[in-house]
Design brief:
About 45% of the residues lie in helices and about 20% in strands. It is an alpha+beta fold and about 425 residues long. The strands form six sheets. A six-stranded antiparallel β-sheet has the order 2-3-4-5-7-6, with helices on one face.
């Protein structure tokens, strides 16, 4: 689900895609917009298109965000302009905020040039792997808490008039870039808001439904706890591997009711009790029962990460993830084409009914199961702390292997 006007449009009205066509009026990749050379169209979301571009004025690659000035929803354009000013402020006080290099209007578009961050979005990482290794998930959540703390410490004489704190308003995996050195960068401040010392909340009609706090859904306002709720959703998603709230029918109104009622999906029993309690508290539908600040949540996460229960679970969790990575990259031989295929390539072909016929599908998948089973068994023997978990997870495969090996072993015994 993309950023959109809350309580107003269908959930998929502003989808975020990585391969959308360039916006109307802008020449495709390789051409120029103003002084910028558009090298690659990266994404489309809401009213904006994002490009990897080259700025000859500073001789470096940048991320260029373009929004048409004549869009029908002028409130969205106004939000983009304000968000750009706030992002520029954020980049001056937080290393987690992508820095704004330039912005303005030209050729019918409002543009924002920001530093180009090498890496991939957390959304891409989670789409590929489900959840994250436990210690990495906690580390990212702590970084996000630090970002919120810094945003709530902006001085009154900052470029944002009398601002006491800055609210991003759309923290979600798509707007979190995981860099090559394992740090994070927060991007897209398109719907950000600022609060003065005197104000407790401010209006913000835009957001991404799964990451919006229940009180914000009801009032349309953001306050100092709005971003903390979003971070808590991301924490659950990283640890459990799915969103904490959802609609069985995909209906927007039902989704909203699930969030408002606090119908949290079950947290798996293997997750440490103390960590599960932190997640439940941070996602309580009543604001006064949650953590009162990002500092409090960060401290709780730092403390739980030191406990023996968490360390033991994280060791098992990461060993299991290693096995998963190994088996996900296993390869098999396609006897029909003479090619070596990866498991994900086979699955993709099966999903899209490509050119592997039924008999070949069976041979390939049968070979993959046998290969993967052998790799799993070897891994089990070398990771003592994970034996019980892995044996339980792959009991059926081991039984199958035993069944197939039994006749062969009987033949060997007879020969002896």
């Amino acid at each position: 689900m993309g950023t959109r006007r809350l309580k107003d449009t269908p959930a998929d009205d502003f989808p975020l895609t990585e391969s959308a066509a360039p916006p109307k009026g802008v020449v495709r990749e390789g051409a120029y917009y103003s002084r910028f050379r558009l090298d690659k169209h990266v994404a489309r979301g809401g009213a904006a298109d994002v490009y990897l571009a080259y700025d000859p004025q500073i001789n470096r690659e940048i991320a260029l965000r373009l929004v048409r000035i004549d869009i029908q929803d002028q409130e969205l354009l106004a939000a983009e302009r304000l968000g750009t000013v706030l992002q520029r402020t954020a980049g001056g006080v937080s290393s987690e905020a992508a820095k704004v290099l330039d912005y303005g209007e030209a050729e019918g578009f409002f543009f924002v040039a920001t530093e180009f961050v090498q890496g991939e979005s957390l959304d891409q990482v989670l789409s590929r792997s489900g959840g994250l290794p436990s210690r990495r998930a906690i580390a990212i959540a702590i970084e996000l808490c630090c970002f919120i703390e810094q945003m709530q410490g902006i001085a009154p004489n900052s470029p944002v008039d009398r601002a006491a704190l800055l609210i991003h308003g759309d923290i979600k995996p798509h707007n979190i870039i995981v860099t090559g050195d394992a740090t994070i960068k927060i991007i897209d401040f398109g719907i950000a808001r600022s609060l003065s010392h005197a104000a407790a909340s401010t209006q913000n009609l835009f957001g991404t439904l799964p990451y919006v706090a229940p009180e914000r859904l009801q009032s349309g306002k953001v306050d100092k706890l709005s971003d903390l709720w979003s971070v808590s959703i991301v924490l659950y998603q990283m640890v459990v591997g799915r969103l904490p709230f959802g609609s069985s029918s995909g209906d927007y109104a039902e989704f909203e009711r699930e969030i408002a009622a606090g119908n949290l999906r079950p947290i798996p029993e293997e997750i440490p009790r103390t960590l599960a309690e932190i997640i439940r508290k941070s996602l309580d539908p009543k604001p006064d029962k949650r953590y009162s600040s990002a500092t409090d949540l960060r401290y709780a996460l730092e403390e739980v990460s030191k406990t023996s229960e968490f360390l033991q679970w994280s060791h098992t969790n990461e060993a299991s993830a290693q096995v998963s990575r190994e088996t996900s990259t296993a390869v098999v031989y396609d006897h029909r084409t003479g090619r070596v295929l990866r498991r994900d390539e086979i699955q993709s072909r099966l999903d899209h009914n490509k050119d592997i016929n039924e008999s070949s599908e069976y041979d390939e998948l049968h070979t993959f199961v046998a290969d993967a089973s052998e790799r799993i068994v070897r891994r089990v023997d070398s990771v003592a702390s994970s034996v019980s978990l892995l044996r339980q997870d792959f009991a059926e495969i081991i039984k199958l292997l035993a069944t197939r090996l039994e006749p062969s072993m009987a033949t060997v015994e007879k020969r002896k």
